[in-house]
Amino acid sequence: MSTRLTMKIEGLRELQKALRQMSDKAPKVIQSAHKEVASVVVAEAKRNSDSAELASRIRAFGTTRAAGVRFLGHKTKGQSKTTDALLQEFGGRAPLFGDRDRWYTVKAKKRGGYIVYPAIRATRDEVNRIYLDELQKAIDLFWND
């Protein structure tokens, strides 16, 4: 006679909690899935970027809670660590010509974004597929441990 276990999971926290109950190795699996998803978005964002230098500064990262995209900045003496692409995409403040006494504010001009947001929209179906595949792998891996 077999027993059947039914779980209802809503949201990432409940999913992580359920996977953690199955195995202590689950957070690493979730982290690698997030990094894989972020790398798909980063590949598309690099195609959207207008220069090779900017494309070389876009990185993917994954934590147990989120997938993310980073713009690496360049820091020279007296300047803050920021990129023009980051300011253009999201808006913000930066020192004017590296002078910390004079700042300028950039408002994001294009609501739909230039690099990251179009990449997220373009890869949405692939990201969903990868998440479901990785979730199935995690369940198959940890269910009988």
SSE inventory with pairings:
Elements: H1 12-22, H2 26-48, H3 52-56, E1 58-62, E2 67-71, H4 84-90, E3 92-96, E4 99-106, H5 116-122, H6 124-142
Polypeptide structure, described:
It contains 6 helices and 4 strands. It has 145 residues and is an alpha+beta fold. The protein has a two-stranded antiparallel sheet. Strands 3-4 form a two-stranded antiparallel ribbon. The mean pLDDT is 77. The protein has one domain.
Short description:
By secondary structure, the chain is α+β, with helices and mostly antiparallel strands. The chain has helices spanning 12-22, 26-48, 52-56, 84-90, 116-122, 124-142; strands at 58-62, 67-71, 92-96, 99-106.
For the biggest β-sheet, the strand order reads: 1-2
- Using only C-alpha atoms, the radius of gyration works out to 20 Å
Helix content: 40-55%
Order of helices and strands: HHHEEHEEHH
The main pleated sheet reads as:
2 strands, antiparallel
